[in-house]
């Protein structure tokens, strides 16, 4: 599938009607989501034929993008039931099968090595401190191949250090810097559109048998 | 929820050792056919918990779908097996990717805590006093 085609299909997904501030429910726009998954597939071969998990899937954009790029099995995980219902609707509209689990990412427990790739647009941790790192460390615990994630560019040095030192990553690489145009989703955003620089990261987890814990 | 997801999902109630495998209770299930991908099955075979998969298929109403012991690769991936009705690889594919549990529950083997499955979505949320600190 071509990038433009992927972006077009993601652009047709239904977004949150009533986003929840405490969960930092910013939808992942089709521009960013399509580039994230397209790169994962075409530069690293991490999607097609793989088992993919989308952490904090919201309305399902990254999960659906994975399924569109021929992931063999996709599981979207979110704490919020309304989001999961929306993700289900979006997947059904495109005749895609994705599995969904309602769970708080920090309490997730996945056994074995079945999940190859984790994709996520985590909360940036501005409303609940550390939420972004909870997502990242769980992603690196669960994935056997790679973790793709978005983090504010302003936190780049910190993310790199924390991923390698505390989260079992053997490599942490910024693939590109993107502009995240946050539409005026919440009342506390007083400017019309807030443009945030975000990094698209690819992390490689340490092999399970080489981990200290 | 398909049985492949069941094969890696565990409970995380405070105090449990592994929380795996979750016992599956099925009130309603459905079948959706998808194309068989032999390379995919070959890749995940060594990573599957075969016993958990057999138990889950049985709970979903297919007690005879899978052999009790994991079949040899030579049998699973024999020439033409993917196209042969009722072959071991077709049954494995069916179990992992075509059976959907729509209503039921997942029960933690250590704590007995039951997690409901509604509209295909297992609810793994924990109460405050069940969370590990």
TrEMBL record, chain A:
Gene3D superfamilies: Vaccinia Virus protein VP39. Residues 44-129 form the Methyltransferase small domain. InterPro entries: DNA_methylase_N6_adenine_CS, rRNA_MeTrfase/Polyamine_Synth, SAM-dependent_MTases_sf, Small_mtfrase_dom. PROSITE patterns: N6_MTASE. One of its GO terms (molecular function) is nucleic acid binding. Belongs to the methyltransferase superfamily. PrmA family. PANTHER family: RRNA N6-ADENOSINE-METHYLTRANSFERASE METTL5. This is Methyltransferase-like protein 5.
From TrEMBL, chain B:
Belongs to the TRM112 family. CDD domains: Trm112-like (cd21089). Interacts with TRM9. GO terms for biological process: rRNA (guanine-N7)-methylation; tRNA methylation. PANTHER family: MULTIFUNCTIONAL METHYLTRANSFERASE SUBUNIT TRM112-LIKE PROTEIN (PTHR12773:SF0), UPF0315 PROTEIN-RELATED (PTHR12773). This is Multifunctional methyltransferase subunit TRM112-like protein. GO terms for molecular function: protein heterodimerization activity. InterPro entries: Trm112, Trm112-like. Coiled coil: none annotated.
């Amino acid at each position: 599938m071509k990038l433009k085609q992927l972006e077009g299909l993601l652009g047709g997904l239904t977004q949150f009607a009533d986003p929840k501030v405490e969960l930092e429910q910013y939808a992942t726009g089709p521009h960013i989501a399509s580039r994230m998954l397209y790169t994962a597939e075409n530069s690293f071969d991490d999607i097609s034929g793989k088992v993919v998990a989308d952490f904090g899937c919201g309305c399902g954009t990254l999960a659906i993008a994975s399924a569109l790029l021929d992931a063999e099995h996709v599981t979207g995980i979110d704490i919020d039931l309304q989001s999961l219902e929306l993700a289900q609707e979006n997947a059904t509209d495109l005749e895609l099968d994705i599995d969904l689990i309602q769970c708080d990412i920090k309490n997730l427990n996945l056994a074995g090595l079945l999940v190859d790739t984790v994709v996520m647009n985590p909360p940036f941790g501005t409303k609940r401190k550390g939420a972004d790192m909870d997502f990242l460390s769980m992603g690196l615990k669960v994935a056997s191949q790679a973790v793709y994630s978005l983090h504010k560019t302003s936190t780049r040095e910190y993310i790199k250090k924390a991923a390698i030192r505390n989260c079992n990553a053997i490599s942490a690489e910024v693939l590109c810097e993107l502009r995240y145009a946050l539409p005026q989703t919440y009342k506390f955003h007083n400017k019309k559109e807030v443009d945030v620089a975000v990094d698209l990261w690819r992390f490689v987890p340490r092999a399970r048998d080489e981990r200290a814990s | 929820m398909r049985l492949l997801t069941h094969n890696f999902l565990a409970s995380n109630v405070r105090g449990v050792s592994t929380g795996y495998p979750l016992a599956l209770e099925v009130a309603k299930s459905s079948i959706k056919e998808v194309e068989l991908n032999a390379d995919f099955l070959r890749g995940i075979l060594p990573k599957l918990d075969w016993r958990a998969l057999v138990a889950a298929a049985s709970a979903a109403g297919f007690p005879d779908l899978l052999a009790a012991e994991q079949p040899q690769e030579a049998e699973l991936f024999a020439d033409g097996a993917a196209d042969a009705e009722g072959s071991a690889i077709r049954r494995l594919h069916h179990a992992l990717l075509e059976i959907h549990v729509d209503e039921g529950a997942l029960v933690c083997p250590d704590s007995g805590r039951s997690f409901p499955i509604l509209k295909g979505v297992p609810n793994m949320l924990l109460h405050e006093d069940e969370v590990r600190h």
